[in-house]
From TrEMBL:
Species in which this protein is naturally found: Chondromyces crocatus
The enzyme's E.C. designation: 3.-.-.-
UniProt-recorded name of the protein: Hydrolase
Extent of the signal sequence: 1-25
GO molecular function: hydrolase activity
InterPro entries, alphabetized: Cip1-like_core
Origin: domain of life: Bacteria
Keyword Transmembrane: no
Gene3D superfamilies recorded: 2.60.120.200
Keyword terms, alphabetized: Hydrolase, Signal
Pfam families tied to this protein: Polysacc_lyase-like
Segments forming a coiled coil: none
Class of this enzyme: hydrolase
Length: 306
């Protein structure tokens, strides 16, 4: 999945040392075996493909950290949150010391469990079977790591959707915002693309205009994708990368940009104070989904996908 670059090649000896030093506890990003940079399961090969419908692949207009090219992946073991789900038993819940299984407000048909049918790292991941109606939602939740990270939060996770995202609004990642009365900042989909949604006013990023939709992307069903996000609470900056590349339509900066973050700026001074993170599935328009999540990490710096 990662494209070798001179910088990355130069960093490989250092990465090997780091991986050797942290052993099994490191979260198994790619297993540390070196060489191809691929991962250990047979169903990861599709992650390198350019997803259908990528909006031109341009990084125009994305500032800051997205432009830097190759980055070395952080040592997961030392991060405030790092879980490769390898120590939990298939069929059971993820480590209860790290995750709660929750269905806020109401519960229905949604289920989740550790699964050994698909994995990004090692042999296991979390499988989520979310129903299409709101109460059929289910999530794993961690409410301690973000306090250890601070006000500017980087996240990284791998996700594999069984089906394409549909037209209706769905959520697969939420971040509770104490400055919004505990309402969520939500990553999900609508109009078949990845998007962010702000629960308080239902603003979307990008705007769901044809021009906005073209600036996000459609995840490839049946393939692992690496999603990275950065939320700088005090400045209200939000950044997103998929498979290592900044997604132009999933960026909030200080300047309202038509079709992208102009709608987001309708709430002046947006400055989220995040307090938890949840991964799962919640549908608002009838779309159910089976998805797998693996190699979740939170840190104060960009984490990387390798
Ligand atoms: Ca795993």
């Amino acid at each position: 999945m990662p494209r070798p670059s001179p910088l990355r090649i130069a960093l490989l000896p250092a990465l090997h040392l780091a991986l050797a030093a942290c052993g099994l506890a490191c979260g198994g990003d790619d297993g540390g075996s070196g060489g191809s940079g691929g991962s250990t399961t047979s169903d990861t090969g599709g992650g390198g493909a350019t997803p259908a419908g990528v909006g031109g692949g341009s990084t125009t207009g994305v500032g800051g950290q997205g432009a830097g090219g190759a980055t070395s992946t952080l040592d997961c073991a030392g991060l405030p949150l790092c879980d490769d789900f390898e120590t939990a038993a298939p069929g059971g819940p993820p480590d209860p010391a790290v995750w709660s299984v929750v269905s806020p407000n109401c519960s229905g048909t949604g289920t989740l469990a550790i699964d050994d049918a698909h994995a990004h790292s090692g042999a296991r991941s979390v499988r989520i079977d979310g129903g299409g109606n709101y109460c059929d939602h289910v999530f794993i939740a961690n409410s301690t790591a973000i306090a250890a990270v601070g006000a500017a939060v980087h996240g990284r996770f791998f996700v594999r959707f069984e089906d394409p995202l549909g037209m209706s609004h769905v959520t697969f990642l939420t971040l509770r915002d104490e400055n919004a009365g505990g309402r969520d900042l939500r990553m999900g989909g609508q109009s078949e693309i990845l998007m962010w949604n702000r629960e308080t006013d239902d603003a979307t990023l990008p705007s769901l205009s044809p021009a906005g939709i073209a600036q996000s992307l459609r995840p490839t069903a049946g393939a692992w994708h690496c999603i990275e996000f950065f939320v700088d609470g005090p400045s209200g900056v939000l950044q997103t990368w998929v498979d290592g590349a900044a997604v132009p339509g999933l960026q909030v900066d200080a300047t309202p940009t038509p079709d992208i973050d102009q709608q987001w700026h309708n709430q002046p001074g947006w400055a989220p104070a995040l307090s938890d993170v949840k991964f799962g599935w919640e549908g608002y328009g009838g779309q159910p989904m089976t998805l797998w999540v693996d190699d979740i990490a939170l840190a104060a710096q960009r984490i990387g996908c390798d």
